[in-house]
Amino acid sequence: MIERTRFFRRVVYGPAPDSCHLWVGALGDDGYGRFWISRGGHQIVVRPHRYALALELDRALEENEVAMHRRCDNPLCVNTGTGDPFLAHVVLATSSESMSDMGRKGRGGGRRWRFGADRAERARRSRAVREAVLKHGWSQQAIEAALYEETQGTLW
C-alpha cells in the first residue's frame, strides 16, 4: 500500500474545511500520533502532524522546523489547510515561534496545557477522542462526551 494512502486512511475529516482533521492511528504516551514510514531501508516513526505538513509543503521538514498547532492545540489534528493558509491548524514554524506561541497560550515551561492536561492527561484525552471518532465518526457530541467522561473538561 502506498504510504500516503496508508496515512490518509487514519485521518477523519471534520465537517468543515476549518475543522480539525483527526489522526485515529497509533498514539504515543504523550497523546500525539505515531506513523511508521520507511526511509533508507529503515523503519522510523514520525508524528502525523509533521508528516501532514511535509506533504502539504511537498518536502521533508528540516530538523530545525516545527509543525506548530496554531489554531487548535489539538494533538490529534493534522489539518494543514490543503492549500489555504487561513484554514490551516498546523503550520510551519521555527522553534522560537513555537515557544512564543506556547507562552502566549499559557503552555510550556513546566506548566500544564491551557486545557489543564499534563502529558498523561493529554494522552488519556487523545485516546478518548480517537475511540469516540472510531466508534461514531466525526461527531462533536460524541467527542465532547468522551472528553467530559474522561476529564470533566474539553480538549480544544
Question: What can you see in these coordinates?
Answer:
- It is a single chain.
- The chain is an alpha+beta fold and 156 residues long.
- Helix 4 runs antiparallel to helix 5.
- Mean pLDDT is 86; it is low at 109-116 and 150-156.
- The chain has helices at 3-8, 48-57, 95-104, 119-136, 140-151; strands at 11-13, 21-23, 35-39, 42-46, 65-69, 90-94.
- A two-stranded antiparallel ribbon has the order 1-2. A two-stranded antiparallel sheet has the order 3-4. It has a two-stranded antiparallel ribbon with strand order 5-6.
- It has 5 helices and 6 strands.
Any guess at the CATH architecture?
Answer: Alpha-Beta Complex
What's the pLDDT, averaged over the residues? 86
Structural class: alpha+beta
Radius of gyration: 15 Å
Strand order of the largest sheet: 1-2
Name the helix and strand elements from N-terminus to C-terminus, one letter apiece: HEEEEHEEHHH
Q: What sort of overall outline do the alpha carbons produce when their principal axes are compared? A: globular
> How many distinct helices?
5
Helical content band: 25-40%
Largest sheet: 2 strands, antiparallel
Approximately how much beta-strand content do the residues carry? 15-25%
Distance between the termini: 33 Å
The CATH topology assignment is Homing Intron 3 (I-Ppo) Encoded Endonuclease, Chain A
Number of domains: 1
What is the CATH class designation?
Answer: Alpha Beta
- In the predicted model, the low-confidence regions spanning at least 5 consecutive residues are 109-116, 150-156
Annotation, overall tally of beta strands: 6
